[in-house]
Specification:
With 138 residues, this protein is mainly alpha-helical. It contains seven helices and four strands, in the order ααααααββββα.
């Protein structure tokens, strides 16, 4: 119950875990989530396999993707250059305005992130999660 009352956007505590991470799956307790991770880690040791665990704050991840790196990633995964160019062209010159106090600001260019709500965005964003960065010259 206490975790539900924690406000989002607050600085992480001494454990460096933000409130949003604890609240990520409110239907499952934190204990359940830790137990699941423990089982996965134990199986990794048992199977003598490498384990990588990555926690992604999807709300922030969509806004922070470096697009130049993204285009390289797509090509690295074998997406044809023609398709990469089509996707890149849909992002080039993207402009936004912000409403503040009932007024719209001047338009400004957005150079990072993927569009939230775009059907391609989850695919594009997840492409970065599968990369061995040592294999890519970025």
């Amino acid at each position: 119950m206490t975790i539900r009352q924690i406000k989002n956007g607050k600085a992480a505590g001494t454990d460096n875990i933000p409130a949003e991470a604890l609240k990520s799956d409110i239907e499952r307790s934190c204990t359940d989530q830790i137990a699941t991770l423990r089982i996965i880690a134990e199986q990794s040791v048992e199977w003598n396999s490498t384990l990588y665990i990555n926690f992604i704050h999807y709300g922030k991840a969509f806004d922070s993707v470096d697009r130049r790196t993204l285009w390289k990633l797509l090509r690295h995964y074998g997406i044809p250059e023609k398709i990469v160019n089509i996707i890149r062209n849909s992002y080039d010159g993207l402009q936004c305005k912000v409403e503040h106090g009932g007024q719209l600001t001047d338009a400004f260019q957005v150079r990072t992130g993927v569009r939230q709500g775009c059907l391609l965005s989850p695919f594009i964003l997840s492409s970065g999660g599968r990369l061995d960065y040592e294999d890519l010259d970025i």
